[in-house]
């Protein structure tokens, strides 16, 4: 059965509708999409619209009688949370590139007037800015980030709680890089955490899955691509260089 859902405007709304439907007995293969807001499910019993309406709260449920073209949905176990993911392009990644550009510029200016430029110090400042800014975007909607992250991360897929912890790990790493406290362990944790994170990213790219990248949380709708791999691997390389040179 398919139903139109009026009132959904973000991934948080999608998650609220999905959680409400999980409490309705007998529903299987629940799918909720934000693009052309609607839901579908399978059930061995006839489920009254009133029962669905009570489960989702203020979102307006109405049956879709005619067949319509439905975007392909990514599935996670029997539940799917999706939104239309754009094709990779310069315009799509412009917000990400601009944010990285700002962090790059600030980390360079931190050593002005460049009389004795220190590459290791620049990497430390860059990584501090990177982790703090990216953690900020994730924490704006930690529920939405966790839902998106477990679609591809190998740890969050088995343990959903990791999606809620990860932004705080990033924030902690950013603060340690900023202050220069425990440099050895900060770099080691960075290498381990981002190396593991990159495994799911690489798998998703090899499988050509069209899913959303959660690197900037739910603020921007970025598609998963090799850009995400470069992002993770670059941070691992910088942390490795800092370990090698005692930065």
Explain what the structure shows:
Strand 2 and strand 3 form a beta hairpin. The protein has two domains: 2-82, 2-Layer Sandwich (Alpha-Beta Plaits), CATH 3.30.70.100; 90-244, no CATH class. Helix 3 (90-109) packs across helix 4 (119-139), helix 4 (119-139) crosses helix 9 and helix 8 (183-206) runs antiparallel to helix 9 (226-244). Strands 4-1-3-2-5 form a five-stranded mixed beta sheet, with helices on one face. With 247 residues, it is an alpha+beta fold. The protein has nine helices and seven strands.
Give the secondary structure arrangement, pairings included.
Elements: E1 2-6, H1 11-22, E2 27-33, E3 38-43, H2 49-56, E4 60-63, E5 79-82, H3 90-109, H4 119-139, H5 142-149, H6 154-158, H7 161-179, H8 183-206, E6 212-213, E7 222-223, H9 226-244
Parallel strand pairs: 2-5
Antiparallel strand pairs: 1-3, 1-4, 2-3, 6-7
Brief overview:
Helix content is 55%, strand content 12%. With 247 residues, the protein is an alpha+beta fold.
Features:
alpha+beta; 2 domains; 55% helix; 5-stranded mixed β-sheet; 247 residues; two-stranded antiparallel ribbon; 9 helices; single chain; Alpha-Beta Plaits
Give the SSE string.
Answer: EHEEHEEHHHHHHEEH
The termini sit apart by 58 Å
Structural class: alpha+beta
Radius of gyration: 21 Å
CA-based shape: elongated
Mean pLDDT: 86
